[in-house]
Design goal:
The complex is a heterodimer of chains A (about 190) and B (about 140).
Chain A (H helix, E strand, L loop, with lengths): L7 H37 L2 E3 L3 H26 L3 H25 L10 H33 L9 H26 L2 E3 L1
Parallel strand pairs in A: 1-2
Chain B lengths: L2 H40 L10 H50 L4 H19 L13
Helix pairs in contact in B: 1-2, 2-3
Classes of the chains: A mainly alpha (about 190), B mainly alpha (about 140).
Chain lengths: ~190, ~140
């Protein structure tokens, strides 16, 4: 917590600037992910590699479910329900780890390697960059969880939670576009 | 439709139904806990004996607090319900996306579905339309 105590009015004014900064950050991230998507359509065209469809669907559902639990955590702290806030944060972090295991532990152990031409380069570039964001999101969530456990945040002051939640949802939005681009669009090339 | 495609559709159905079942169960348990909590409140002694003025004031204060608590509970329930509905819609659209792929639907249509999903998350989870509202919290 900041050493300088602010009034609620000052805090709310500061909140607007914080949100603006966060969304500018998302804008800059959007350029990165859009670049990766553009590379996928340029290099793969109307084709895609033969990937495990079941795995793609499962990790997608896991990530969507994690957004749901994150939303529950944020709603809980808004209403000062600390117990539910902490438990939902932990579930979200767990689902994030499951997603990482699905992508890195299973998808990356498939028959496509990073050096396998355009398919390998784009697949590992997209999933790797996204997995890095999921990993940082999990770390962010655990920091917030630890702060919450130590009594930080309240219904009126919880910018850290809000930023963490929005970041996590943003990572989810990116996957909403990556999932069809990697697993569904185009004809399979064996 | 070959066996692989059937397997994929079955997997998608299982995932979606399992998720839906889990959510339905969670909702049922939540509703049950609310009913039980409501029962406890209903059993509180309210009008047993003639009430002195100070007791009447205390009772009025208790009722105000109870009403405020109920209102907070109603807001919370509405917020959680919105989250469940968003999850169900996202699951449904993902299933549609998956089946559309098996049916050979165009890339543009897939992209449109993804746009709708992203829009739902932006609006209901990221609260993009209320970013600059007064009042601090979303």
């Amino acid at each position: 917590m900041s050493a300088v105590k602010t009034t609620l009015a000052e805090y709310r004014e500061q909140l607007k600037n914080n949100r603006l900064g966060l969304w500018f950050f998302f804008l800059s991230e959007a350029f990165l992910f859009t670049g990766l998507l553009a590379a996928r359509f340029y290099l793969w065209g109307n084709t895609r590699p033969d990937l495990d469809q079941g795995l793609g669907l499962v990790v997608t559902v896991i990530l969507l479910a994690s957004s749901f639990t994150m939303n529950r955590a944020e709603t809980a702290i808004v209403h000062d329900d600390r117990e539910r806030f902490l438990s939902n944060l932990l579930v979200t972090a767990g689902l994030g780890v499951l997603f990482l295991i699905g992508v890195v532990g299973f998808e990356w152990q498939g028959h496509i390697r990073p050096g396998d031409g355009a398919f390998g380069a784009v697949l590992y570039g997209m999933t790797g960059m996204h997995a890095l964001h999921v990993l940082s999101g999990v770390v962010f969530i655990l920091i917030i969880w630890n702060n919450g456990r130590n009594g930080h945040y309240s219904g009126e002051r919880h910018w850290g939670v809000e930023a963490c939640a929005i970041y996590w949802h943003y990572v989810d939005v990116v996957w909403v576009f990556f999932y069809p681009a990697i697993y569904l669009m185009g004809h399979v090339v064996h | 439709m070959d066996n692989t495609q059937l397997f994929m559709i079955a997997t998608a159905a299982i995932v979606v139904l399992t998720l839906g079942g889990g959510v339905a169960l969670a909702l049922a348990l939540y509703q049950m806990s609310r009913v039980l909590a409501g029962g406890v409140v209903a059993r509180l002694p309210v009008e047993d004996a003639p009430i002195a003025p100070t007791e009447a004031m205390a009772l009025a204060a208790w009722k105000r607090e109870r009403d405020a608590e109920r209102m907070r509970g109603a807001w919370l329930t509405a917020a959680y319900r919105t989250g469940v509905m968003v999850l169900l819609w996202l699951g449904l659209l993902t299933a549609v996306e998956f089946v559309a792929n098996l049916m050979g639907v165009s890339t543009v249509a897939m992209f449109m579905i993804a746009l709708v999903k992203a829009g739902i998350i932006l609006q209901f989870f990221m609260h993009v339309s209320s970013l600059w509202l007064e009042g601090g919290s979303h």
